[in-house]
């Protein structure tokens, strides 16, 4: 039931962009104006299509965070609202690599011939002979993370093989891939140094007979979260967080505080003279509280200075 409701919402949001000028013709997408409207909380730079474009510096900062630091940053700390946008239970291609990029979203749906024949005819009238995974890949920009809702499909849900995985790596400058589905050619892909989160690997190929591109750069579902185009995508060896652009800077700022808190806590444990409850999750002694606040201010200043170099 949830899946049907989610698809209905996505199509309701996306359908107004179906009949757009020929140069922009796509299946179920947003116009530049619609993109700006649905992401109006973001007041920074945008791509030509209206997608939010968070600064490269924020991507660099996101690579220094962990899933816990981001999650804890959303638990109401520092005045931030409670906001969980984490999805796990992926297979992680390179657990030693961090992912950080801007979400480029794609939604697939199961093939239905009577619908697909109408869609194909309309697209050809608008100069698009084939709507497939390569049509999507050719739209990627440096820093994009391709985020794909392939509805958890295993066989026949392989978004790319090793050649097109390599293309994504080059087109996005190694930003990454998240697919709620599968890919093929794991043997060929495993040595390519790009972060990737996936459900399965399978030797079958993706084709119009197995899945249909339904939407490009609209809200999609990945597991239990909704992903918007332009979200800051941050991944580590546990899973992936999809951060709304308008909240990204404050979440990253608070992640610094969480990191420093953990750093100070372990330093105190290393001294071997405190019980855990005296230090964690916050010190009880007023002297220790002041020591922590001084340490926090010092480390925040050091971090800020290092980022200005």
Entry summary:
With 309 residues, the protein is α/β, with parallel strands linked by helices. The chain is 38% helix and 17% strand. It folds into two domains: 2-63 and 84-243, Ribonuclease E inhibitor RraA/RraA-like (Glucose Oxidase, domain 1, 3-Layer(bba) Sandwich); 247-307, no CATH class.
H/E order of the elements? HHHHEEEHHEHEHEEEEEEHHH
**Overall strand count:** 11
- The CATH topology label of the largest domain is Glucose Oxidase, domain 1
Please tell me how large the radius of gyration is: 22 Å
What is the beta-strand fraction? Answer: 15-25%
Instruction: Tell me the structural class.
Output: alpha/beta
Main sheet makeup:
9 strands, mixed
- What coarse outline follows from CA principal-axis ratios? elongated
Tell me the number of helical segments per DSSP (H or I, 4 or more residues long): 11
**Mean pLDDT value:** 89
- CATH superfamily membership of the largest domain, which one? Ribonuclease E inhibitor RraA/RraA-like
What's the structural domain tally? 2
The parts where pLDDT drops under 50 for at least 5 residues are 1-26
CATH top level of the largest domain is Alpha Beta
């Amino acid at each position: 039931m949830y899946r049907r409701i989610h698809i209905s919402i996505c199509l309701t949001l996306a359908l107004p962009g179906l009949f757009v000028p020929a140069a922009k013709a796509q299946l179920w997408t947003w116009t530049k104006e619609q993109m700006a409207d649905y992401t109006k909380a973001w007041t920074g730079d945008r791509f030509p299509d209206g997608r939010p474009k968070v600064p490269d510096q924020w991507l660099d900062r996101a690579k220094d965070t962990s899933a816990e630091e981001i999650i804890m940053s959303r638990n109401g700390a520092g005045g931030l609202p409670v906001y969980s946008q984490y999805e796990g239970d992926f297979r992680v291609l390179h657990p030693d690599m961090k992912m950080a990029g801007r979400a480029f979203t794609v939604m697939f749906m199961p093939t239905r011939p009577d619908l697909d024949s109408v869609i194909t005819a309309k697209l050809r009238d608008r100069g698009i002979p084939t709507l497939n995974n390569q049509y999507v890949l050719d739209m990627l920009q440096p820093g994009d993370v391709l985020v794909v809702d392939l509805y958890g499909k295993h066989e026949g849900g392989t978004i790319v093989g090793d050649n097109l995985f390599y293309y994504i790596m080059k087109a996005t400058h190694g930003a990454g891939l998240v697919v709620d589905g599968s890919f093929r050619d794991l043997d060929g892909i495993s040595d390519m140094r790009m972060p990737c989160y996936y459900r399965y690997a399978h030797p079958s190929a993706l084709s119009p007979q197995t899945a249909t591109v339904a939407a490009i750069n609209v809200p999609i579902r990945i597991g239990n979260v909704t992903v918007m185009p332009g979200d800051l995508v941050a991944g580590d060896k546990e899973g992936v967080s999809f951060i709304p652009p308008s909240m990204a800077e404050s979440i990253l700022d608070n992640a610094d505080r969480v990191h420093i808190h953990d750093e100070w806590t372990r330093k105190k444990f290393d001294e071997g003279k405190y019980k855990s409850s005296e230090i964690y999750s916050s010190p009880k002694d007023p002297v220790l509280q002041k020591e922590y606040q001084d340490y926090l201010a010092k480390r925040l200043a050091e971090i800020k200075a290092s980022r200005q170099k």
